Amino acid sequence: MRRASDQEPAPPGAVVLLGVPLDENASFLRGAALAPGRIREALLCGSSNLCTESGLDLADHPLVYDAGDLSLSAPEQAFAEIEAAVARLLSQGTKVLVLGGDHSVALPVLRAYRSHFGPLQVLQLDAHPDLYDTFAGNRYSHACPFARLLEEEPRIRLAQVGIRTMNPHQRHQAARFGVQVHEMRHWNGRTPFVPQGPLYVSLDLDVLDPACAPGVSHPEPGGLTTRELLSLLQSLPGPIVGADLVELNPLRDPLGLTAMVAAKLVKELLGRMLEA
């Protein structure tokens, strides 16, 4: 996996990994800021390889780059720094796969994508809708990013899969913003989402059942299996122009098993994003 830098940027058409170590907006437990490094360790672990299930070898792929982790300054400046970094990569003609961090990082990333692509199709894979108007007094909590996004750009089409924590407020918010919600209790194993244009995938690891991914801050029983999630990603219509993978908490993952799941998902997302 090649290294991208300001001196040696990735070429147009490349997919770039970008770590965003931010968990300032987590509402329950901190620790997600440690995730990018742990995911990279799992990706490079000798117990596995860098091939996707389709057989694509990412190890020496000429269009797979890693830009490392952002060095973020004060929390109040972090969103602007994230948006600027992603916008810079998009301006170079690359696609970006962000390794979070808590789910609040999706907002500045999607702001950059919105500016570059216009109204997007967004697929959110998550146990939680993240549509609160405010949570614990924080309008930029990881429980709120999609409410902020849709306030700023109501033309974005948001579909959510795996949801199993809807309360009355979030049901109201989903109706208000016209969100296409596919609750886990109605899951039938088939892809319920057909995008109409460029697709961005926002993947919160707690979309998985805790039996498959215990190393998250908000485990919610009744989620997808790893196989179901992989099959969903593999069957999505393209093109996938961007993605984030968020909410791994290494402090709750002492054996690194959830990090290995995250690495597997990163490989499959990279493979899909490399498609034309």
Describe the fold and architecture.
The protein has 276 residues and is of the alpha/beta class. 30% of the residues lie in helices and 18% in strands. It has seven helices and nine strands. It has helices at 35-43, 75-91, 106-117, 145-152, 168-177, 226-235, 257-273, and strands at residues 2-3, 15-20, 64-69, 95-100, 121-125, 157-163, 180-183, 199-204, 240-246. It has a nine-stranded parallel β-sheet with strand order 1-3-2-4-9-8-5-6-7, with helices on both faces. Helix 1 (35-43) packs across helix 7. The model has no long low-confidence stretch (mean pLDDT 95).
Strand order of the largest sheet: 1-3-2-4-9-8-5-6-7
Number of strands: 9
Largest sheet: 9 strands, parallel
Strand content: 15-25%
Identify low-pLDDT runs.
none
Radius of gyration: 17 Å
The H-and-E topology, N to C, reads as EEHEHEHEHEHEEHEH
Which geometry do the CA atoms define?
A: globular
Helix content: 25-40%
Separate helix tally? 7
The structure class reads: alpha/beta
Distance between the termini: 20 Å
Mean pLDDT: 95
